[in-house]
Write a structure and sequence with these properties.
By secondary structure, this protein is α+β, with helices and mostly antiparallel strands. It has 3 domains: about 5-130, no CATH class; about 145-190, no CATH class; about 195-334, no CATH class. Helices cover about 30% and strands about 20% of the residues. The protein has a 6-stranded antiparallel sheet, with no helix packed on it. A 3-stranded antiparallel sheet has the order 4-3-5. A hairpin with a 5-residue loop joins strand 3 (about 190-200) and strand 4. The protein is elongated, with a radius of gyration of 28 Å. The chain starts with 5 loop residues before the first helix and ends with a helix.
Length: about 325
């Protein structure tokens, strides 16, 4: 078990915060600011977690980390609304609490700490409309296949066949999932790193799952797409043979919409025509009380979007299909 050093993490956070603040003071341009009563040094300020937490409490704002990811935005707004006067007041209050006890500060009342009366309602309304921007994971990582010897597909097939019928020929048992040769048998595939989406003339979606082993393979990318009903991989149809047009690729944490509702991609299954997604803010789905939910993608309106750090989105209507190492090398030689 790995134990985290919280003290070291806090020191790293403090160092990073000071470094970022110094960078902003040096390079951020305040020449167009309408505030001429603030000196340059005071324009970028740091707030401790203790001050932020205290003001959040005094302003009547609840922070529930498990509910969704919007608590980061909540803290950012509290920091933005705090002033040097708040820091001074809280610091002096902390000294008096040490001398007079924890209950001493209650006679101040919460209104004394509020920049304006409706700050709680105003911040809550802003937080509700925050669009959480996530970084897309387009870097290919993950194992090419499951290297655990106990996971060898061949071993399990033989054992299962012998339990049912000792005389049955093992090779006659169809393998439903895609496999890879490993040692003397066959191992399960590793992780799906992306899903290549193809669309036919009727607007139906078809997905070719791309594994990490496909990216570094010495063969062209696979073109077999998932069927709605379970069937052996050898019987999967081909997008090339069916002349289905490529539209875009989906990676983990890509922003997509399904019939007009936006989600972030969690993963695309390798055996069923389903896609697992998460809400934009990371909250649970009301119907399932879970952070992930599966949708069938064949007969829905599926769109993909780019999203920047500030949450600005733009639909990606068409992409060029990315090749693998073999295809890229072949293209470079031609």
């Amino acid at each position: 078990m790995i134990r985290r050093n919280l003290s070291r993490d806090l020191n790293d956070t403090r160092y990073a915060a000071r470094h970022i603040a110094d960078y902003l003071r040096k390079y951020f341009d305040f020449s167009n600011s309408k505030r001429d009563d603030i000196n340059e040094v005071s324009r970028i300020q740091l707030r401790s977690g203790g001050v932020t937490g205290f003001l959040r409490h005094m302003w009547g704002l609840d922070k529930i980390r498990e509910e969704n990811d919007l608590h980061h935005g909540l803290d950012a707004l509290v920091i933005a609304c705090s002033t040097t006067g708040h820091v001074y007041l809280v610091s002096n209050l902390a000294k008096e609490i040490e001398r007079k006890g924890k209950n001493w500060y209650k006679h101040f009342g919460r209104d004394k700490f509020k920049p304006w009366i409706t700050i709680r309602e105003d911040i809550e309304n802003v937080v509700k409309n925050i669009f959480v921007s996530r970084m897309q994971r387009h870097t290919v990582t993950g194992a090419a296949h499951d290297e655990n010897p106990e996971s060898l597909v061949e071993k399990r097939r033989i054992k299962k066949a012998k339990r049912k019928n000792n005389k049955k020929i093992v090779d006659s048992i169809p393998i439903k999932n895609r496999i890879i040769k490993f040692n003397k048998g066959y191992a399960e595939m590793g992780d799906i790193v992306r899903a290549d989406v193809f669309v036919d003339e009727k607007g139906k979606n078809y997905v070719v799952p791309i594994y990490s082993v496909d990216i570094f393979s010495n063969k062209i990318l696979p073109d077999k797409y998932l069927r709605i009903s379970a069937s052996p991989y050898d019987e999967w149809p081909s997008v090339k043979e069916d002349d289905i047009e490529f539209k875009f690729s989906i990676f983990k944490d890509d922003l997509i919409s399904i019939d007009g509702s936006m989600y972030y991609v969690d993963f695309v299954g390798g055996t069923r025509s389903n896609i697992s997604v998460r809400n934009i803010d990371g909250s649970n789905f009301e119907s399932t009380n879970s952070r992930e939910r599966e949708f069938g993608y064949r007969n829905v309106e599926l769109k993909k979007y780019s999203v920047d750090m500030l949450g600005t989105t733009k639909e990606i209507k068409q992409e060029k299909r990315l090749g693998n190492r073999f295809e890229n090398k072949k293209m470079a030689q031609s």
